[in-house]
Amino acid sequence: MAGPVWKNIYRLSDDQISRLDLAEERMEMMDISESERILLELLEEDVRCVPVLNNLGHLNGRHLSDFEKAIEYYERALEIEPDNAWARDERRRYQRYLSYD
Question: Within the chain, which residues score under 70 in pLDDT?
Fold first, then answer.
């Protein structure tokens, strides 16, 4: 049975999709440094790539506990795509963590 089919609304190239998948896989395997390296490389190539910004927000918030950096990445995603519910919800979550400090 095939996995879920999603629409490539960001018009990512096959190479971008492949490297994004690899970064997500590395993150799941707790190879955070390699995941971050791949994501930052992708971001360098396209600073407006929302999936990369969202993944960097997730990586920084969940795996590195750098909530300020996570918020920055989600805010950048929201500047590009203001109705991105994922980025908005995750940004709010990390803002709450900071407000408890």
Answer: 1-6, 101
Give the amino acid at 92: R
Distance of alpha carbon 56 from alpha carbon 69, whole angstroms: 9
Q: How many Cβ atoms from other residues are within 10 Å of residue 93's Cβ?
A: 15
| pTM summary value | 0.89
Say which CATH class 32-99 falls into: mainly alpha
Of 34, 39, 32, 33, residue with least CA distance to 54: 39
Sign of CA dihedral 12, 52, 77, 85: positive
The Cα angle at residue 65 between residues 61 and 68, in degrees rounded to 5: 65
Residue 67's Cβ-side half-sphere holds a number of Cα atoms within 13 Å equal to 12
Report the alpha-carbon distance of residue 67 to residue 52 in Å, rounded.
Answer: 17
Boundaries of every domain in the chain: 32-99
- Residue owning tokens 């996995």: 3
